[in-house]
Amino acid sequence: MAHANEGFSRRDFLRGAGVAATAVAVAGVAGCATAGSGAQGVADVKWDRETEVLVLGFGGAGAVAAAAAHEEGAEVLILEKAPKEGGGTTRISTGYSSIVLDPKGALEYLRTQVKGLTPQEVFETYVQEGATLTDWLDDHGIAYTDVSSVLGSDYKNWPGSDAFGAVGFTNADGTNSGTAVFDWATQYMADNGIEILFDARAYQLVQDPSTREVIGVRARHADGSEMAVRAKKAVIMCTGGVECNDEMIGNYLVPSPLAREGWMFNTGDGVKMGQEIGADLWHMNMLDAYGVTFTAPGDVTGRFGLNGATCATGSFMWINRNGKRFMCENPSNIGTPLAHRSVNRFALFDDIPGKLPLGYDSSYRDIPFYLLIDQKQFEAAPLYDNNQTAGCGLIDKELGGVEPWSEDNKQELEKGWILEGDTVEELVKRMNANSADEGYHMDPADLQATIDAYNADCAAGVDTLFDRPATVNDAPNLVPLDTPPYYALRLMPCMNTTKGGPVKNGNAQILDTHGEVIPRLYEAGTLGHTAAQVYCIFGANLAECFNFGRIAGCNAAAETPLEA
After folding, report:
1. Within 13 Å, how many C-alpha atoms sit on residue 10's CB side?
2. H, E, C per residue of 155-168
3. 154 CB contacts (<8 Å, ≥6 apart)?
4. pLDDT tens-digit readout, 35-94
5. 20 to 30 Å CA-CA from 112: which of 39, 53, 268, 426?
6. In 3-state terms, what secondary structure has residue 184?
7. Which SS3 state, helix, strand or coil, does residue 517 take?
8. What is the spatial distance between Cα 154 and Cα 157, in angstroms, rounded to a whole number?
């Protein structure tokens, strides 16, 4: 692949730029009396460990940042919140990364996306790294397939939409999965002697109040014991988003609540640590959706692979609390571009007084909703497909993994996850009871009317409400619900990751609320993601890990070590 930046060494530029920018920032705030409110004086800390570059989080971004810093000659230590290696969101992802085919066009596309909410200089470095990503993958022996002919930018009407392609990472057996990336990461750390401390949740950045430099972190283990780690060069935060913090979801995202098929340890730690020392925040309303999901009682995360989106018989519908269908349940373009923005379709706020039960006069109308099927669909196939190369079914239960779905749906029926009713009235009674605390209240007559109208459309072969295709992939997609008993599965709109976090510059350095660099503090990955407003490039998450992981690692390694 030819790149527009041939003859220009981005690494050479970054090696000097990060240190220079830090020096300027320190000089510019030398007169400040104090650092952020969370600043910790050097004398307050008894250091338990010391390293040069300290990476927080062992997901895709943390792995790439650690590798980049190590290859620049730095000593690297990784702290990971989980009790053991799991791979973060990267391992359970579908395993695609965007690449840049045309840097100039990519900049134009990205400017259209962000509407001024991300500076040009951030995109310039992102694009430079994206244009050389396949070279880096080749150098590191990470197997991939170029799928640029079918994947890339989602909005084909935007200028520069042809500037992005994509690669899919492949396991040894040839299947595509994020596991391929993390198998490489695990082996790389072992081969290069990079230590990973598990069960070590970083919760506070240690900052020198006189220089504002971040010089280490405080971390806590699951048993309550603590440790402090000094970073002689820099700290890189790769702690992911807020997708498993319900309070932060409610404060930052629309709609809410939302379910997730992500890494259960992504609870906003990096956001809070940054806030404590005065970091500015951006893109806090950003996420990439993952369609819809079922979350078992007591679980943090939902499951990937709902067959309810492409039911075997086509005898299904989605029903809100009013007993109505509310969108096309299975459009022919249900694929990834739509799925990454699917939560937007659930953002209808129903606030008409008296329309909902007392205490629920303000709510998102279609959250939660139910998948409704009849007996022939129940017997046709499991509602969830276990043969997946993504999702929490790939990881252990203690890391947020989910158990396999039964092949005949009967175990889930016995557990009460699937609700059953011999009649519509009986099923509605159970749905109302199952979600009563969320204001779910349906009139059986309304649901019966909806079923009757849907069945009439099936007979005519035309969905008069939402233009649902009569067939999808040559399979029937408009089939009447006419074979009792009826069954319902509670579903929620779902996300994979959030994108918000501390503001960064093109060197991956974190900025405070005055736009000044917080010295020796970097970030990469979905924490402080580059994207604003909408997720619009297929594989943008892993690209953020690779592109800014390399930038952050390289610049952190180039910092001048602190004196002893």
Report:
1. 23
2. CCCCCCHHHEEEEE
3. 337, 340, 535, 536, 537, 538
4. 444 444 566 789 999 999 999 999 999 999 999 999 999 999 999 999 999 999 998 898
5. 268
6. helix
7. strand
8. 9
How sure is the predictor about 340, in pLDDT bands with cuts at 50, 70 and 90?
confident
Average pLDDT over residues 452-474: 93
Lowest mean pLDDT among 13-27, 171-185, 300-314: 13-27
Q: Which amino acid is at 448?
A: Q
Q: Tens of pLDDT along 354-396?
A: 666 655 556 898 999 999 999 999 999 999 988 888 888 889 9
Check: CB of residue 287 under 8 Å from CB of residue 535: yes
504-to-30, 344, 524 alpha-carbon distances in Å: 21, 27, 9
Residue with tokens 């510019």: 28
Write out the DSSP string of 314-362: S-EEEE-TTS---S-SS-TT-SHHHHTTGGGGG--EE--TTSSSTT-SS
Cis peptide upstream of residue 561 (ω within 30 degrees of 0): no
3-class SS letters over 465-512: CCCCCCEECCEECCCCCCCCCEEEEEEEEEEEEECCEECECCCCEEEE
The two beta strands, 49-56 and 369-374, are unpaired
Give me the residue label for tokens 């820099």. Answer: 234
The predicted model scores a pTM of 0.90
Phi, psi of 543 (to 5 degrees): -60, -40
Specify whether the CB–CB gap between 563 and 230 falls below 8 A. Answer: no
Chain segment 323-335, per-residue pLDDT in tens: 999 998 876 544 4
Give dist(CA 38, CA 246) in Å, integer.
24
| Identity of the amino acid at 191 | D
What are the residues whose beta carbons fall under 8 Å from the beta carbon of 63, sequence distance 6 or more?
Answer: 90, 181, 182, 185, 188, 189, 545, 549
